């Protein structure tokens, strides 16, 4: 695994937004997105493109509190056929806003890091997961760069404690049980359930339950609920893994 800079996260975000815009070009925007129940491609696209514009505005202003996402006009085209291009156009202003600020500059975020750098990383992995959603909806092959995916696994584990809108996260406690996430590429993490919290560390050790996949991309999709853990090797207490997955929806 490698460590990422703020600028690298921003550049990779732009690449991922462009990839999703390409995936959506000429697609039927009414296609259901099975990994986001109740949404179609149009709703998935407007969610992500609106998010980019919302984040860009807050980063530009170093906002101390969240802006009203419904309070500004994102410039959405009247014709859904224009949504893919509109999505792609949002990458430029988002990148410019993020690169214009010191990644350590304080601002509001919903995670543990109240600084600009939270948003460059969060927007990368938001774009990756929703690009996968679009590809799965259209029956296209899914591919995620290994370095991006490994960073995404760690980012998921870092932000999970702050997912206040899922009450199940507050129940992720235990008596030292461990969930081990291992990829054949050499990336690995172990989550430990303590009586008052859960925490994670990079580790290649097995756990109370261990999930073994080919790549970090597989692990990322399992964590985000885009793939079933049943598709991969599970060793140990499968019930613990099922309980973890039930409580970790973001």
From TrEMBL:
Ranges for domain Mycothiol-dependent maleylpyruvate isomerase metal-binding: 11-134
Q: Where is the MDMPI C-terminal domain?
A: 147-241
Q: Which InterPro entries match?
A: DinB/YfiT-like, Maleyloyr_isom, MDMPI_C-term_domain, MDMPI_metal-binding
Pfam families cross-referenced by the UniProt entry: MDMPI_C, MDMPI_N
What PANTHER family does the record point to? CONSERVED PROTEIN
- Name this polypeptide is given: Uncharacterized protein (TIGR03083 family)
Species whose genome carries this gene: Streptosporangium lutulentum
């Amino acid at each position: 695994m490698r460590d990422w800079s703020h600028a690298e996260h921003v550049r990779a975000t732009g690449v991922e937004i462009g990839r999703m815009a390409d995936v959506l070009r000429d697609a039927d925007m009414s296609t259901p997105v099975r990994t986001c129940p109740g949404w179609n491609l149009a709703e998935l696209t407007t969610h992500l493109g609106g998010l980019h514009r919302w984040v860009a505005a807050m980063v530009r202003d170093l906002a101390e509190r969240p802006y009203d996402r419904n309070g500004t006009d994102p410039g959405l085209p009247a014709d859904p056929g224009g949504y893919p291009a509109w999505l792609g156009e949002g990458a430029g202003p988002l990148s410019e806003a993020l690169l214009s600020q010191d990644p350590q500059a304080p601002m509001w975020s919903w995670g543990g890091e109240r600084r600009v750098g939270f948003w460059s990383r969060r927007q990368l992995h938001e774009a990756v997961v929703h690009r996968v959603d679009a590809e799965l909806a259209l029956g296209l092959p899914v591919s995620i760069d290994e370095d991006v995916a490994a960073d995404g696994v760690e980012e998921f584990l870092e932000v999970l404690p702050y997912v206040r809108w899922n009450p199940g996260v507050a129940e992720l406690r235990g008596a030292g049980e461990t969930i081990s996430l291992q990829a054949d590429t050499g990336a690995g993490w172990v989550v430990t359930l303590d009586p008052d919290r859960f925490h994670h560390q990079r580790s290649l050790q097995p756990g109370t339950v261990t999930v073994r996949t080919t790549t970090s991309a597989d692990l990322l999709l399992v964590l985000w609920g885009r793939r079933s853990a049943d598709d991969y090797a599970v060793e140990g207490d499968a019930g613990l893994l099922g309980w973890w997955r039930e409580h970790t929806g973001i």
